[in-house]
Amino acid sequence: MFYKIKEFVKEIGKYSFDAMQQKHKVNYKEDNDAILSIVTDVDLHNSKAFEQFAKENFADLNYVIIDEESIDDLDGSLFQQIANTEYQFILDPIDGTLNYSSGLPFYGILLSVFKNGEPLYGFICAPALDELVYTDGKQVYREHFGKTEILNKFPKGVSRVVQAHMWEVKLKPNHINGRFIAQDYFSAAIYSLYLSLGQLRAVLATAKLWDIAPLMLICKIYGMGIYDYDTKEEITISPKYISEKGKIKNMMIMGFKDEIDEIKNIFSEIVRV
Fold it and tell me: What is each CA distance from 202 to 80, 110, 262, in whole angstroms?
């Protein structure tokens, strides 16, 4: 399963990259014309492609596909589906669709495999950056420019940047001189990639289940976690933290638990939401 899915992610990554400069048919989720609700034909292609791939390769398994583009079509509640199946495939077919539809490289594909509600494998693909980061549950790997390396230790101290969705930002000199500063990529795939590579120190954002699913396992391998912003509890796949539509109910912090208070303090200094 692991290697078949890795090759599939690379294939739809190539398809997405090759189709990037084409004129895309654009729709909006739930008749919402807000720009961040945009959906392209490539999102829908990748979603259908995985559905067919799963049928052809895993017909003997008891599974459910939890897909951003088809979450409303689930037969029964999200948590009922998880409880009633052995395998859960969690997919965001194009994350950062606004960037993608604008011809910007900051987009990606997020795919995770869960077994009995627990993360088993995770894949983060950023085709335009030639980046694929994935985990088999034991180690984290990176494929980049034809080379594969093991990322089994987070390079703590490399970056002081916090990815955060920002509306009003006021950076001061002391925020750059050795302290956390903020950046927004408008893509969970990109902040997942950069966090995995140590190019982000932490992530502070709102999200959906498919946004964070690969990172749930990668963070665990690194000794990091995904925490509720207010309570500092670690977020798990449960109704306490996740809605039936897959939305994480509260703002969250991804990173090292011993840095949460510092991240929150800096965030409160520079950002008003």
Answer: 32, 18, 11
